[in-house]
Design brief:
This protein has 371 residues and is α/β, with parallel strands linked by helices. 27% of the residues lie in helices and 15% in strands. The chain is built from 4 helices and 20 strands. A hairpin with a 4-residue loop joins strand 1 and strand 2 (51-53). The radius of gyration is 37 Å and the shape is elongated. It starts with a helix and ends with a helix.
């Protein structure tokens, strides 16, 4: 009897403990979901998960009350216009800072200087037009920088001075028309570089210097019509080169031959190719290089000459080039025949002169003998 009562009491105590723990966990979960007193109004701060969501809160400046333990801060879709010097000094543990879709046009020097643990910074869809030397101060450990859909017009050697650890850089859909030599010189570990949707017209040797770790280079949707022979040579890890939808009419064989990676895929669709014999020879030689893969070769179309407009390069009748080759051969043979004929005629004239001289000498000797 006493044993049974003891078991019941133990069971009741166990149930009571479980109920208490359940209530405690529920209360903790509920409190963590609700905005706390130390969280800016309009933000949802989850201390247990170390993130603060302040998206679409109509902020015009950075919030002042964000828990110091926060590692992810989402400030996207607000109206923030200026990032002042030494921003977010109370949030030095931040690893991810999302500021996309704001109205940011000014990033003061040293704005991120206190965020030494930051690994991802998203500033896409803003109005940033320049990147001064002080922009990257404190971002030595940054791994990903998103700057797409801004108003950048040029890049120089000061733009990314301190971004030694960057792996991914997205500069797509800006207004970039000029990249100075060594603009990316500090980014020896960069793997993905996105420059699509800008206004680049030429690629000069040196602009990709030091980018020996870049694997993906996206240059689609620019206005590129000129590429210097050695521009891709520093890219010793390149596996994908996207040059689609530019203004390329021709290309030098050595431009791509200078890429010395084990395997590189090249995309060239959407360019206004001038399908002359020189271009066909270039692509024929490129296809023979085992380490280079022209993935969209069968989709390349001709813009010039007019008679071949909208034809695929692969469909172009090679008789044109054959006829050109035959013409060259005919001209060459004609020249050779002419030269040989001239040489033969010269030789005949020389022999005639020699014979005449011989007979003249013989005649003079006979005259002497008469005397």
């Amino acid at each position: 009897m006493s044993t049974t009562v003891g078991k019941k009491r133990a069971t009741n105590r166990s149930r009571a403990m479980k109920d208490f723990l359940f209530v405690l966990l529920a209360a903790s979960f509920t409190s963590s979901r609700s905005p706390s007193s130390w969280c800016e109004k309009g933000c949802n701060c989850r201390g247990d998960l170390r993130f603060a969501i302040c998206s679409q809160a109509s902020f015009t400046q950075l919030p002042g009350r964000v828990p110091s333990s926060t590692e992810l801060l989402d400030l996207s879709h607000n109206w923030i216009a200026v990032l002042p010097e030494r921003s977010l000094t109370d949030n030095r543990k931040l690893r991810v800072l999302l500021l996309q879709n704001n109205n940011i046009s000014v990033v003061q020097d040293g704005a991120f200087s206190q965020l030494e643990f930051l690994q991802k910074l998203d500033l896409s869809w803003n109005r940033i037009s320049t990147l001064d030397k002080g922009f990257s101060i404190g971002l030595a450990f940054l791994r990903e920088l998103q700057l797409s859909h801004n108003s950048l017009s040029h890049l120089d050697s000061r733009s990314f001075t301190h971004l030694d650890g960057l792996k991914r850089l997205n500069l797509s859909d800006n207004d970039i028309h000029s990249i100075q030599v060594r603009s990316f010189a500090t980014m020896s570990g960069l793997r993905h570089l996105h420059l699509e949707g800008n206004r680049l017209t030429s690629l000069r040797s040196g602009i990709f210097s030091m980018l020996r770790s870049v694997e993906h280079l996206n240059l689609a949707g620019n206005l590129i019509n000129d590429t210097q022979v050695g521009v891709f040579k520093p890219l010793t890890s390149l596996t994908l080169l996207n040059l689609t939808h530019n203004q390329m009419t021709s290309v030098y064989f050595k431009t791509f031959l200078s890429i010395h990676t084990y395997s590189t895929h090249i995309l060239l669709e959407g360019n206004p190719w001038n399908c002359d014999c020189d271009l066909q020879r270039v692509f024929r030689k490129l296809q023979s290089v085992q380490r280079l893969f022209l993935d969209d070769y069968y989709n390349l179309t001709c813009r010039q000459p007019a008679v071949l407009r909208d034809y695929r390069l692969i469909q172009v009748d090679t008789e044109l080039c054959f006829a050109e080759t035959v013409t060259v051969l005919i001209i060459t043979v004609t020249v050779v025949i002419t030269v040989v004929a001239a040489m033969l005629m010269g030789e005949r004239k020389r022999k005639r002169k020699k014979r005449r001289k011989h007979w003249t000498q013989q005649g003079e000797l006979s005259d002497d003998s008469d005397y």
